[in-house]
Amino acid sequence: MDTHFKYQAIANQLEELIEEGTLKIGDKLPSVRRLSKKHNVSMSTVFQAYYQLENKGLIEARPKSGYYVRFSPSCMPQKPKVVIPKAEIKNVSIDEMISTIYANISSKDVLQLSVSAPSLDLLPIAKLNKSVQHAIRNEPNHCIGYEEIQGNLQLRRHIARLSFNWGGVCHEDDVVITAGCMEAVALSLKAVTKPGDTVAIESPTYFGIFQVIESLGLKVLELPTHPETGIDLDRLDRIIKDFKINACLFVTNFSNPLGCLMPDENKEKLVQLLATHQIPLIEEDIYGELYFGKSRPRTCKTFDKTGQVLLCSSFSKTLAPGYRVGWVLPGQYKKDVISYKLYHSISTSTLSQAAIAHFLENGRFENHMRHLRKALHTQSLRYLQCLSEYLPADARVSQPQGGYVLWIELPPNINAFDLYMEAIQHQVSIAPGQIFSTHGHHHNCLRLSFGRSYDQEVETGLHTLGQLIQKRL
Amino acid sequence: MDTHFKYQAIANQLEELIEEGTLKIGDKLPSVRRLSKKHNVSMSTVFQAYYQLENKGLIEARPKSGYYVRFSPSCMPQKPKVVIPKAEIKNVSIDEMISTIYANISSKDVLQLSVSAPSLDLLPIAKLNKSVQHAIRNEPNHCIGYEEIQGNLQLRRHIARLSFNWGGVCHEDDVVITAGCMEAVALSLKAVTKPGDTVAIESPTYFGIFQVIESLGLKVLELPTHPETGIDLDRLDRIIKDFKINACLFVTNFSNPLGCLMPDENKEKLVQLLATHQIPLIEEDIYGELYFGKSRPRTCKTFDKTGQVLLCSSFSKTLAPGYRVGWVLPGQYKKDVISYKLYHSISTSTLSQAAIAHFLENGRFENHMRHLRKALHTQSLRYLQCLSEYLPADARVSQPQGGYVLWIELPPNINAFDLYMEAIQHQVSIAPGQIFSTHGHHHNCLRLSFGRSYDQEVETGLHTLGQLIQKRL
Questions:
Q1: Among B283, B344, B338, which Cα is nearest to B151's?
Q2: For the residues A416-426, what does the mean pLDDT come to?
Q3: Cβ pair A228, A254 in contact under 8 A
Q4: Mean pLDDT across the stretch A236-265?
Q5: How far apart are CA B429 and CA B422, in angstroms?
């Protein structure tokens, strides 16, 4: 989070006081005049800080009285528990449920809380369109000819520079551009496995990961995953000794659906553990730039000395899902990844690449990301506050530190897919927990995306959802 | 070819007379005045017809004397012979040769005669850029959001309408949009085979086809292919009885590299034969719209009653290689093809799809294709004439009826890869025959693309190539 603005420093400080419980619900905040004197800033700066906290739903203004604490994270619902899947290797079966959900995913009348992506109003449409115009006018081949297999050089340079954010030292030649993160993951899997191999993944995990693994004739082994810190490393250590694991595929930062964030020291340990056993790690980091805290978390790639980590990411969660531009830093597997890219799709859209490369110039991307992070953080708090009101008291909800999704654990007698089927009748779409595991776990869980800006429609939708849940208790 | 212009009818008639040998080299053509009276057309119409024939290199104007026949297709070099590969199943090995050639493929200083694609000056850059601008302004999500997995509806409608050209009756819902033809082929292979299966292909064949087959863990069986009529159906019939063939992958119209055109009656027989044996056919038809004759050839899909033909194509050879937009009509395998598309790349670039969909409105595409076909036909004749001058007398050259490439058979003591290595030193890039077979056949053959507009640089390059060949005899 930015602290180079004075108002931001003040807002952060107050937010911490509220989080720690020093300032409690109902407490009156210092007057604007007093705070402006204390910090030696203008009154408008203090108003800006208060406005931000109000926007996040943490404080409220009472007419002719001043500002009061309205909500504290300590009032949030409890966080979800760890579910330990059985340590067994099995073939993934792709569920009819996913098809059902996909069939409703582009309906305009439905409140889409099931898609882990930004709503359009959070994206810089006008500036991106200017970048497209720049590309078709100024690129030597007007973006009509083939791009290099490895990808647009300028774009690879910008992506290499982004590695600075996560403490990496990476060169343009280390980057391979792909058609989105899914292609990056598919090419990485092709490069490090052969059909019949076993890939260890988190549990619960994004269903797209099961599907790409199954489609390549691979098996999965689901690992217990802590809702806040990710993969249990001790357990992984033991499992590696008992089972033949050919590769790992983890979402280390703000994983989908749990939203967990693997601590940086765990990342370092994980890389060492896998290096010892010579197991390649495919690290999906599409949410890494969407942190709500003070700094961007590191990646496993940061600690990779042997080139065994393949870092996959994309601009789909930050800039333009429809442009289909992602990348992989494939380490020692670069040659194979480039070959498979050539064999399966030749190269990525020249136009999409050139437009994004132009957008990444002159700080446009950094500026946009500052706004997007702030908006998502605010939205996550708004959604959480609303849920704490409408959900039953014993429901547990994750408190994500980044990304797009909330993971909700309901009382065990609730079947989330049944709830989905009923909610969709009320024009609300959620992602039921069952689709995030091959073991039939998480039947009483659901994933909610807060990528859509919070408004009356969202509140009404969450209210409806709460009523449907209460009815089932 | 268009015959609704009067000049075109006259030009066609004269061209036929030259082809049949009725008009011989050196013969004087009727005067412009006489022909205009005879056909009851203006003199400028006759000039236009003569201009076209002159442009194709078939006639020449001699000052103060009139027009004379300059060249006849009967003077063309002989056509290549059939090479019969051994009927054996083997694993494809991807050659170091291909890497060497790819390493030089984007060098600006080299005369690129090794890429089977249009040069930029043949493409409608300005109009396509307008379509891009239209798309980013007018599409509801400004092309930033995800497109449907199956693809842009308008685009699918246009592609369904194109099926009228090859005698198909196809609906927008039968079309799946892909990231270029290679992805269409890869998804089709995934849908109809499993690792270890055998796919029958033409020989020689485009090396990209070997590579995608190998990368999916499949085996190939190369079939003898006639340089003019394609796959030998009797032989295929016998081979199906001797070997377990799980799928066929053929380029039926203007195949790469031979340029052969399977007669429509053979297509019908092929479809019947494969239907009897329940073998799916992946039909690549990226060159089908690039016919030099009077009408577009049909496809196997035209005769498909069981849905066992998967027709793959793209706009890469006709409009915009870099946009990466192709499609497949997957017949009965549609569900699987869409699933694999989702698992591996989610969807195709929204922007590229919307821009092409707009370009396909209001006859822009048909208009462009008329020009492109005419230009390619003219270029093919120009290249052929030039080669007949510079190649040794016993060299054989294909006379393609469409597409982008010439196949040249040199005397047996010439090694085409050695020739490639020497030619690249002289800034000329060719595709040596060896890379089009896994059997080491065609060592004395090479493929030349005539996609680049004929000019002095091309003539000099072909001259150099001729000298290098003569030196090796």
A1: B338
A2: 91
A3: no
A4: 95
A5: 10
Structural domains of chain A, with CATH:
6-74 (1.10.10.10), 92-121+366-472 (3.90.1150.10), 126-365 (3.40.640.10)
Q: List all residues 6 or more positions away from A49 whose beta carbon is below 8 Å from its beta carbon.
A: A7, A8, A10, A11, A14, A35
B350/A323 Cβ within 8 A = yes
Q: Give the residue carrying structure tokens 């009656």.
A: B265
Name the residue with tokens 């796919």.
B199
> Tens digits of per-residue pLDDT, A392-409?
999 999 999 999 999 999
Q: Is A346:A379 a contact under the CB 8 Å cutoff? A: no
- The pLDDT score that the predictor gives to residue B169 is 84
User: Following CA atoms A394, A396, A399, A403 in sequence, which dihedral angle do they give, to the nearest 10 degrees?
Assistant: -140
Cα gap B180→B189, rounded to integer Å: 15
| Burial environment of residue B100 by CB neighbours within 10 A (0 to 12, 13 to 18, 19 or more) | middle
Tell me the pairing of strands A445-449 and A431-432.
Answer: antiparallel
CA of B64 vs chain A CAs: smallest distance (Å): 43
- For residue B185, which residues of chain A lie inside 8 Å, CB to CB? none
DSSP secondary structure code for residue A166 in this structure: G
According to DSSP, the residues that pair with B90 across neighbouring strands are B220
Average pLDDT of chain B, as a whole number? 90
Q: What is the CA radius of gyration of chain B?
A: 23
CB A262 within 8 A of CB A270: yes
Distances (CA, A) of B62 to B23, B68, B393: 17, 7, 28
- Based on the number of CB atoms within 10 Å of its own CB, is B210 exposed (0-12), middle (13-18) or buried (19 or more)? buried
pLDDT tens profile A332-377: 999 999 999 999 999 999 999 999 999 999 999 999 999 999 999 9
Two structure tokens written together for B296: 């577009």
Comparing C-alpha atoms, which of A351, A346, A354, A464 is closest to residue A110? A464
Q: Work out the angle at residue A166's Cα, subtended by the Cα atoms of residues A162 and A172, and round it to the nearest 5 degrees.
A: 35
User: CA-CA distance, B337 to A52, in Å (whole number)?
Assistant: 48
Closest Cα of chain B to A186: distance in Å?
A: 6
* Residue A343 host element (H or E): helix A334-345
Q: Which residues of chain A make contact with B215, given a CB cutoff of 8 A? A: 190, 339-340, 343-344
Of A120, A144, A147, the CB nearest to B128: A144
A118 upstream amide cis, omega within 30 of 0: no
Which has more pLDDT, A104 or B356? B356
Strands (DSSP E) contained in B130-195 are 176-178
CA atoms within 13 A on the CB side of A178: 33
Q: What is the pLDDT of residues B122-146, one digit of tens each?
A: 999 999 999 999 999 998 888 999 9
Residues of A in contact with B186 (CB under 8 A): 343-345
List all residues of chain A from 328 to 367 with a beta carbon under 8 Å from chain B.
339-340, 342-352, 355
User: Would the pTM of this model clear 0.90, i.e. be above it?
Assistant: no
| Mean pLDDT confidence for A61-89 | 75
Size of interface A-B (CB pairs under 8 A): 169
Report the complex ipTM: 0.86
Residue B137's CB: how many other CB atoms inside 10 A? Answer: 10
pLDDT value of residue A463 = 96
**Residues B98/B341/B318/B258 CA torsion (nearest 10 deg):** 40
